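Blinded run. Sample ID left blank on purpose so nobody reads anything into the name before looking at the predicted structure. Input follows.
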Amino acid sequence: MIAEEETENSQVGATEARLLEAMSAETETATETIVPLEYSAYAGEKLLNGTAKAAIENIIEQIRSVYDPEIPINVYDMGLIYKIGQNDEGDVYVEMTLTAPTCPIAGVLPQQVADAIAQTNGVGKVEVKLVWEPAWTPDKMTEEAKAMLELL
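Blinded prediction complete.
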């Protein structure tokens, strides 16, 4: 039992070490990166009356098409998406974060997520808000993402 726990802990430790290494590489390559305290990306347009709104599962599938360029795992499975909301008109609101505030793609990734969501049938206007609380940690990743990171 103890050996199993140690193996599991060492695997988690290895995953965290790789993520921290990748995050450190981002920091080293980012020169003068300025991340706004509040930033939102927008896409889409109002749906026509009577248009059925998209299922949340379809929205999540579109989000999964967006990958962090530094780590080849989609932003949803990385645990960067904190909240997905949708109103009766099909407008979608998302709160997401990044692996680190110094991330050089801070202004790009939220727009990519907004654009991907807007391509979903039944989605109207889209707002993706970048948030920093709670801070992202590797434990927010899905089990599949953690397993994939172990293979890198």
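Unblinding after everyone has recorded impressions. The radius of gyration is 17 Å.
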